[in-house]
Amino acid sequence: MHPILSRPARVAAYLGVWFPLGMLLASLLALEGVFGWTDATLVALPLAIAYGFLCLSSWYVTGGSPVERGVGAWRNALTAVVASFLSSALWLLLARGWMSAVGSYRDWPNVPVSFRAAAPTLFGFGFFLYLLAMAGSYLAAAFALSQEAERRGLELQVMAREAELRALRAQIDPHFLFNSLQSISALTTVDAAAARRMCLLLAEFLRETLALGARERIPLAGELALARKFLEVEKVRFGDRLQVEIDAAPGTEDCEVPPLVLQPLIENAVTHGIAHVLEGGVVRISAERRMTTLGITVDNPCDADRPLGRGTGLGLRNVRERLESEYGDDALLRANESNGRFVARIDIPLNA
Questions:
Q1: 66 and 120 part of one domain
Q2: Could you give the C-alpha distances from 210 to 117, 204, 206, 226, 258, in angstroms and in order?
């Protein structure tokens, strides 16, 4: 179905355009002396409305010779001229019948003479309007193609973003699992009971991770609960060397964050911080709200002379890339080392 005919409001608006065109045609016929103003109006207005529906065929003509398919400009021009000629000729036949009907009602003395006098104006008017209708159809088709291309581009962007997030999550989970399995492997020969306890804690952590990791956002309280589970797993290995302090300011625990966004930072705090400090230390996780921003800080002791492992920087890069995918430039990760402590801070926009 033609797009204009698909909705009554569009049909009404379309006919509203042809009404002044009918009055313009009536004025031309009256000024040429072919008819009086009343007769010219009786002839021109119904003919203009009828021709408006005839011009709808231009949509299908342009669809058969679209510009975007590489059809030559001359062929398109010839198609437009032929279609305009045929539609104008058909309109003349309709005008001849309508003028006969009006002439019998108005008692015109010689309808054929009036028709011959009006025919050049009718034909030229119809020819020009059909060309105009074809140009409008080409523009509408180009606009529709542009919108479709834009829609497909947005869909591809969304698909690419989702694929990127899935890839980042896939990098985070194996990284943590690798470190945990290494810890369990080390404990099996030293403390089998601790290794078993660590396996159970790890299983519980992974179960909660699977439940929350598939969601786009989770409350900060859920993210901090995951952090506690992870640190309980690691505390089996490090014992009293690993101390934990979690301080979430009032009003922050209901704020939504991407699931597992803190996981790489906490892994770094343990793997590249506590593990290399002989006496261990405190891993501090704090959250505060500043107007429209949620700030989360992970602070841990570190040894400036520690060897850099193969995973150094991977966790921070994962977090940065994930924040960029989720929030663009509105989120920020800052990390610095000073006075024997490593501090990583995430700033996340609220309600984003």
A1: yes
A2: 84, 10, 6, 11, 14
